[in-house]
Specification:
The structure is a single chain. The chain has 556 residues and is an alpha+beta fold. Helix content is 55%, strand content 10%. The chain has 19 helices and nine strands. It has a five-stranded antiparallel sheet. β7 and β8 (334-336) form a beta hairpin.
């Protein structure tokens, strides 16, 4: 049986794969266990690695570094790729304010860590490790370690100590954020007007208007749209008691009824433009659009043909050629208003209204074959990773700091991922992956990274926690977690009048803590916290990565 023992003890590539796989499997299994309704999920892999390292299990250091870094790259790039298509549009829906508040959260947390460094005898690497753990941001830890080794390549001991400090602070960061959300819900939620009803992923609003503005009598839809200061789509017109699908040349007449889709923020301007707004609620769930008129149907059609990836919607001339109307474009879970200049992407879901035969013809043109989207676009994946690593390796000179800052393997790939997801189709690069495939890549990368990270920090972990120094780390990590959250949360609520759901979602995203979202949901209906979380998470990851390197360069 020596051969079996050697499988787990000799430093071979087989042993490395088996040990990491065993840690991942054990952590994922134990992560399903709930205590008081809370489970750590994939995060438990981190602690499984710590336990393995505590008991003296080791693998080849170079193989460990390769697995750990590649896992982080895969996770962070896939995340950027997933949020990229809807990332920039989110800024038009209050995303800029939320990201500014997240920036305040990051600044406050960084300053808290720096002050504790000055007031205590905790070293700079350990301070950054405690900060990364307190904000549950493992990419930040990777960036801090990389910056430290860039300054002192032989200081591996300090790098491992940084990982250990992160490991000590991590569980208290998780629990501290959950506690903060529960307290903020009790203190802030009753005092703030809550959003009710539907999810914020639909940023469009449907309303029926009776044309009563003399300024648009006798004008075509194209003429009205050119002179309007907002975007809208006229889905249907009741003309002479007959429901029709309009074209850009359709003339609008007095007292006709139009069904208009616009952005929620433009409803008042749309009403001023057209006139009287009817009381019919066209936004409620469960409307049978096909029952409104027997001649017209409404269908959701997928863009699956590669030749339409990056094509301008207006260039396809679908409305004039087939007499249909495109009322919405759903991309990455966000509803967008269609316009001539909107570039289609593989995976876009178009809501099309028209006669059944015309809609079927458009369906054939666009593809509408979901199985085509299941084919992975691995070429763009690896090209994006290469570009991300190149971007992450570019030295950035910051005045006052002697050593150049690099985005590193955490910052570069997420930026390229976002850009590829948002603008890749303009260059006819197929970047679409199904949600399940993207989630699989993210979870695989994160699991491998956490397993390697825990294994490298495991030796001496428990001996460190149950010491005076370890207890000091615990106290500092709780302070770094809770203080910035409450400061930023109250500033957002009292000064910026941010609603509770968006406030908590922003805080969870800025702290990279999705677990606490479960405690935010019951205070508000819909998915507002999750949307706010996704809006600030990519920028927060990037800023955390940069801040870790800056703190190391300033304090080390």
């Amino acid at each position: 049986m020596n051969w079996f023992t050697e499988l787990f003890t000799e430093h071979t590539f087989i042993q490395a794969v088996m040990i990491l796989s065993l840690i991942c499997a054990t952590g994922l299994a134990l992560g399903r266990i709930k205590v008081f309704g809370v489970s750590l999920g994939v995060t438990f892999v981190f602690f499984a690695g710590i336990i393995a390292g505590h008991f003296g299990i080791t693998i080849n250091p170079e193989m460990l570094a390769l697995a750990q870094n590649f896992g982080l790259i895969l996770y962070i790039y896939s995340l950027g790729l997933q949020v990229g298509p809807g990332f920039f549009s989110s800024f038009k829906q209050g995303g800029l304010k939320l990201n500014l508040l997240a920036f305040l959260l990051i600044i406050t947390g960084s300053l808290t860590a720096i002050v504790t460094f000055w007031l205590t005898d905790i070293s700079a690497p350990d301070t950054v490790g405690l900060l990364a753990g307190a904000v549950t941001n493992t990419p930040m830890l990777g960036a801090g370690q990389q910056a430290l080794l860039q300054i002192a390549p032989d200081n591996v001991e300090a790098s491992n100590s940084m990982a250990m400090a992160c490991a000590v602070a991590y569980p208290f960061g998780l629990l501290g954020m959950v506690l903060s959300v529960m307290l903020m819900k009790k203190l802030l939620a009753p005092k703030i007007k809550e959003k009710g009803g539907t999810a914020n992923t639909d940023n469009t609003y449907v309303a029926e208007y009776q044309i009563s503005n003399p300024a648009i009598f006798g004008k075509t839809i194209m003429e009205v749209r050119k002179n309007a200061d907002c975007q809208f789509v006229i889905s249907r017109i009741w003309k002479d008691e007959k429901l029709i699908i309009p074209t850009s040349e359709t003339v609008l007449e007095k007292d006709e009824h139009v069904l208009v889709i616009s952005g929620k923020k433009d409803v008042e301007r749309i009403q001023t433009l057209f006139g009287h707004k009817e009381n019919t609620d066209w936004n409620k769930k469960g409307i049978d659009w096909n029952a409104i008129d027997s001649q017209l149907v409404s269908r959701k059609i997928l863009v699956t043909k590669p030749e339409h990836n990056g094509a301008r919607l207006g260039d396809l001339r679908l409305r004039n050629s087939y007499g249909i109307n495109i009322t919405r474009v759903n991309r990455a879970g966000i509803d967008l208003l269609p316009s001539r200049n909107l570039r289609l992407q593989l995976g876009d879901k178009l809501t099309i209204v028209g006669e059944a035969r015309s809609v079927e013809n458009v369906s054939t043109i666009l593809g509408n074959e979901a199985k085509q989207l299941k084919n992975p676009n691995l070429l763009s994946l690896f090209i994006g990773i290469i570009l991300g690593l190149v971007l992450g390796s570019i030295p950035i000179i910051i005045p006052g700091i002697s050593t150049p800052v690099k985005l590193g393997i955490a910052g570069g790939p997420i930026i390229v991922g976002i850009l590829m997801g948002a603008f890749g189709p303009r260059f006819h690069i197929a970047t679409y992956t199904t949600r399940s495939a993207n989630l699989m890549l993210r979870q695989l990368g994160l699991t491998i990274y956490l397993a390697g990270l825990g294994l490298s920090a495991g030796a001496g972990f428990f001996e460190t926690v149950f010491t005076l120094e370890g207890l000091k780390w615990v106290a500092v990590s709780i302070l770094i977690c809770i203080l910035p959250v409450f400061i930023t949360g109250f500033v957002a609520a009292k000064i910026f009048k941010t609603e509770y759901a968006d406030n908590v979602g922003m805080l969870c995203g800025g702290m990279a803590n999705p677990f606490a979202l479960d405690y935010a949901g019951p205070a508000s209906e819909g998915e507002d916290p999750a949307v706010a979380y996704a809006t600030v998470y990519p920028v927060s990851i990037f800023l955390r990565v940069i801040s870790a390197q800056i703190i190391i360069l300033l304090l080390a």
